[in-house]
Design brief:
The complex is a heterodimer of chains A (220) and B (321). Helices cover 80% and strands 0% of the residues of chain A. By secondary structure, chain A is mainly α. Chain A is globular. Chain B is built from 11 helices and 14 strands. Classes of the chains: A mainly alpha (220), B alpha/beta (321). Chains A and B meet through helix 1 and helix 4 of A and helix 3 and helix 4 of B.
């Protein structure tokens, strides 16, 4: 991966306020979810809400960000100027993948830290079981976000328009959400390592396909 | 002797074709460009100019034929070619969040410029394209013409030996066109090979040392402006400048082989000849008649066609073929 392009992409997310929206927006959504959640007689720990939020929308956000960004830049011919320089083509998509993934992973971790901190001040700390569950859930979410992100890259590379990209992503997102359920379906006793491995392997396969297609692509 | 010299050209297209399903966008295109030449590539919309350029810079693959730039076959050795090449696409676009400085710095680094060279080069190229006060502006704040100039600046950043420009003057105001044309001429003089496409013939005429005319994906003609004109140089009209008009000079209209006579100015005649007439014989008789009519001739020259006329002739030939 080109460190220069990776840093550039991060700068781009910072300058175009994407980072701020993610890093402030995600914890803020957890607060809103907390305020709007129905009172059931027992308060739901903030840590749990944060984990639920991260696992439910983190991957979709990352995938849509990647797919839309790549399709948009492709259609605007932004890549033409990069492609005529002594740089391997795969650097472009891989740098974008890691930049988005880094952004969304930091947002997720911040949200969880925020949740734990709120619970600490409100309840004197989240219950140990919830905390360890939240960390496991975050690890699984991060691996699924990697899958979604690599799917976002692949769709960005193949989709002819932003709209098609988003449709494919929403459809594909539903299929990806099945992956964390696989350990249960297959009766695997230790699901976390299995899901993490599955996430890494699937991400690598999707990224390899995306890189191959991007390298072979003709830019009309 | 380098391979490029053996092939007798810095850029060598040999039988290049490009097919999009049923559409043959380029048909057996061959040409050579020598180092230091400014090659103007003209043709109507849809003729295949951008396809040629995209094959040249490796964004498209040809269906058939070979292409060499310098010593390197394309696209097999494109990493080597990209060190020699600067490219301005037709619709140049940058990531909008970048500033001019940030964009140029990234492209400079990607092109292999050293850290300490980049700042100076950015200054130089912005000066060269007459865009000196925008270095810290965001791309999104630039006008279309400024973005076009910035596109040229990024192409020049690493001092490329070959500059490939797709419609570099489109969207520029007259002053900017003049400045960019001067920059291209300057680059040509400094030894940079320039390949540029345009459908604005006066721009090509002003800048190019060699011109290729493309239509329907085929090269119709390649040559210097004079060579292109020479195919039409014996146009069926001659311009006669008189040092004395006896008042009877227009009577040459009655000569055999003369179709019409115009007098655009008091001291000149534009004599149109019959297309069937023997040009040499008719001009000889014209001179004799003018002398007999008491007219004094200062000069007599065949009317030279403009590039517009030459271009239209070749384009029509292509359409009729």
């Amino acid at each position: 991966m080109s460190l220069l392009l990776f840093k550039d992409e991060l700068t781009g997310f910072y300058k175009s306020k994407v980072m701020i929206f993610l890093w402030i927006g995600l914890p803020l959504m957890a607060v809103l979810l907390h305020l709007w959640s129905p009172y059931t007689g027992e308060e739901i720990p903030f840590t749990l809400l944060s984990t639920l939020l991260v696992s439910s929308i983190g991957g979709t956000l990352a995938a849509v960000m990647l797919a839309v960004s790549i399709v948009h830049e492709k259609s605007q011919h932004v890549y033409d100027l990069f492609l005529v320089r002594p740089l391997k083509r795969w650097n472009i998509v891989i740098s974008k993948f890691f930049a988005v993934y880094t952004c969304i992973a930091i947002a997720s971790i911040l949200t969880l830290i925020f949740g734990v901190a709120i619970d600490y001040f409100v309840m004197g700390g989240a219950p140990a079981a919830i905390l360890s569950g939240a960390i496991e859930s975050l690890a699984v979410s991060l691996s699924m976000m990697a899958v979604s992100s690599s799917a976002g890259v692949l769709i960005g590379v193949v989709a002819p328009s932003v709209l098609v990209g988003v449709i494919l992503m929403i459809y594909g997102g539903n299929q990806i959400s099945v992956l964390p359920m696989l350990p249960n379906m297959l009766n695997i006793s230790n699901p976390v390592p299995f899901t993490l491995t599955l996430g890494v392997v699937t991400s690598c396969v999707l990224l390899l396909i995306a890189v191959f297609l991007f390298s072979k692509r003709q830019f009309e | 002797m380098s391979a490029a010299n053996e092939r007798n050209g810095f850029v060598v297209f040999e039988g290049v074709s490009k097919r999009y399903q049923s559409l043959l966008a380029l048909n057996d295109v061959s040409f050579k460009i020598q180092e230091g030449e400014i090659f103007g590539y003209i043709g109507p919309n849809g003729a295949g100019k951008t396809t040629t350029i995209k094959i040249m810079v490796g964004l498209l693959r040809s269906t058939q034929g070979t292409l060499h730039i310098g010593d390197h076959p394309m696209p097999e050795e494109k990493s080597e070619v990209y060190k020699l090449l600067g490219y301005l696409p037709q619709n140049v676009a940058f990531q909008e969040w970048r500033t001019v400085n940030h964009a140029l710095r990234t492209f400079g680094k990607l092109s292999g410029l050293k850290k300490n060279e980049i700042e100076d080069r950015i200054e130089e190229v912005l000066e060269l394209v007459a865009l000196p006060d925008v270095r810290n502006k965001k791309i999104v704040e630039l006008s279309g013409g400024m973005i076009q100039k910035l596109g040229l600046a990024q192409a020049l950043l690493h001092n490329p030996r070959l500059l490939v420009l797709d419609e570099p003057l489109s969207g520029l105001d007259p002053e900017s066109r003049y400045e960019v044309k001067q920059s291209i001429k300057k680059l040509g003089k400094s030894g940079t090979t320039v390949f540029f496409s345009s459908h604005i013939l006066s721009d090509v005429q002003d800048v190019a040392t060699k011109i290729g005319i493309l239509n329907y994906g085929r090269i119709m003609r390649i040559g210097t402006l004079d060579e292109l004109k020479s195919g039409f140089s014996i146009k069926h009209a001659v311009n006669v400048v008189l040092s004395h008009d006896s008042g009877r000079c227009r009577e040459v209209k009655s000569l055999r082989g003369v179709k019409d006579v115009e007098q655009p100015a008091s001291n000149s005649l534009l004599v149109h000849l019959d297309s069937e007439a023997d040009v040499d014989e008719t001009i000889h008789e014209l001179i004799q008649s003018l002398i007999n009519l008491g007219c004094r001739i200062r000069s007599i020259t065949p009317v030279s066609p403009t590039l517009d006329e030459v271009y239209l002739q070749y384009i029509r030939r292509g359409e009729n073929a």
